[in-house]
């Protein structure tokens, strides 16, 4: 029996940086209240652990409006520019844990929109990263996530367009949607802002899934990059299981397989990955 664990599984640089930032703030020894704007990452287990340490999550506009003091840590997904402005007006201490790759997109969108470019974000409009990116534009923004939306997109012929991508978007799908838009003969600037770690993670996951009898993808159910990993792996391996913790996995399903692959989303802690790997190893 053989277990193949993806080397890229687990926290990416941006997520690790954000999580470490929160824990560091809880160790200062002060009585100052600590908040994160939205869950710091898409992982319920990590967020629950932080809540045990006194970290509270700002989950709504009402929560933000009611805030009067403390430290607010900006989540790894980033937020709209207006959130910074509102916190600054209140005199709230801001600790920015936005992923540097996401922060780069904010600057690109702000610059190009100031120049009058139409901004297109290739990504999921409901994802907090995309919502944050939209909030840095000073011109109209379109969010496109599939071929149908790309086909139906239109704007004045003389309008310049700047295309960026959600950092965790599928690279091949991004290229497909860009090609559809470029065929419309607009003046288009394309900036591939998909994180290299995302592409490497997806490529490695596909490669492993193509060679094993069963594939386990570990990550929070709300994690966009984990969902994409699952979709990629399921296309290559019919026996692909999406779990959040070991308790979600029926080990009996793996009893007759000879090789198992394991990968995990960028918001999955190493201890959960190791727990799954160790228990799979036991049944073998």
Automatic annotation (TrEMBL):
Catalysed reactions, semicolon-separated: isopentenyl diphosphate + 2 oxidized [2Fe-2S]-[ferredoxin] + H2O = (2E)-4-hydroxy-3-methylbut-2-enyl diphosphate + 2 reduced [2Fe-2S]-[ferredoxin] + 2 H(+); dimethylallyl diphosphate + 2 oxidized [2Fe-2S]-[ferredoxin] + H2O = (2E)-4-hydroxy-3-methylbut-2-enyl diphosphate + 2 reduced [2Fe-2S]-[ferredoxin] + 2 H(+)
Cofactor note: Binds 1 [4Fe-4S] cluster per subunit.
Gene designation: ispH
Keywords associated with the record: 4Fe-4S, Iron, Iron-sulfur, Isoprene biosynthesis, Metal-binding, Oxidoreductase
A Pfam family that the UniProt record links to this protein: LYTB
Residues binding dimethylallyl diphosphate, per UniProt: 42, 77, 127, 223-225, 267
Family, similarity comment: Belongs to the IspH family.
Active site, per annotation: 129
PANTHER family in the cross-refs: 4-HYDROXY-3-METHYLBUT-2-ENYL DIPHOSPHATE REDUCTASE (PTHR30426)
Enzyme class, UniProt record, top EC level: oxidoreductase
InterPro entries: LytB/IspH (IPR003451)
Protein name, per record: 4-hydroxy-3-methylbut-2-enyl diphosphate reductase
Binding residue positions for (2E)-4-hydroxy-3-methylbut-2-enyl diphosphate: 42, 77, 127, 167, 223-225, 267
GO molecular function annotation: 4 iron, 4 sulfur cluster binding; 4-hydroxy-3-methylbut-2-enyl diphosphate reductase activity; metal ion binding
Function of the protein: Catalyzes the conversion of 1-hydroxy-2-methyl-2-(E)-butenyl 4-diphosphate (HMBPP) into a mixture of isopentenyl diphosphate (IPP) and dimethylallyl diphosphate (DMAPP). Acts in the terminal step of the DOXP/MEP pathway for isoprenoid precursor biosynthesis.
UniProt-listed Enzyme Commission number(s): 1.17.7.4
HAMAP family: IspH (MF_00191)
């Amino acid at each position: 029996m053989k277990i193949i664990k993806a080397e890229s599984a687990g926290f990416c640089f941006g997520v690790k940086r954000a999580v470490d930032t929160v824990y560091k703030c809880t160790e200062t020894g002060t009585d100052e209240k600590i908040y994160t704007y939205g869950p710091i990452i898409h992982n319920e287990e990590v967020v629950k652990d932080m809540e045990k340490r006194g970290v509270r999550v700002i989950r709504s506009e009402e929560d933000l409006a009611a805030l009067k003091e403390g430290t607010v840590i900006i989540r790894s997904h980033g937020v709209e520019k207006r959130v910074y402005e509102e916190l600054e007006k209140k005199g709230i201490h801001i600790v920015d844990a936005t992923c540097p790759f996401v922060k780069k997109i904010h600057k690109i969108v702000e610059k190009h929109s100031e120049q009058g470019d139409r901004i297109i974000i290739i990504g999921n409009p409901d994802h907090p990263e995309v919502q944050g990116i939209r909030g840095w534009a000073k011109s109209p923004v379109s969010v496109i996530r599939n071929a149908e939306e790309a086909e139906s997109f239109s704007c004045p012929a003389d309008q310049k367009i700047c295309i960026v991508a959600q950092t965790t978007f599928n690279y091949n799908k991004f290229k497909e949607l860009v090609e559809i838009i470029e065929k419309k003969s607009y003046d288009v600037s394309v900036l591939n802002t998909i994180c290299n770690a995302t592409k490497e993670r997806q490529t490695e996951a596909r490669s492993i899934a193509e060679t094993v009898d069963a594939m386990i993808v570990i990550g929070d159910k709300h994690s966009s990059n984990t969902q994409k990993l699952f979709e990629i792996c399921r296309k290559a391996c019919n026996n692909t299981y999406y779990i959040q913790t070991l308790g979600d996995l029926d080990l009996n399903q793996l009893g007759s397989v000879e090789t198992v692959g394991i990968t995990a989303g960028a918001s999955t802690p190493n201890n959960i990955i190791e727990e799954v790997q160790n228990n799979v190893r036991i049944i073998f």
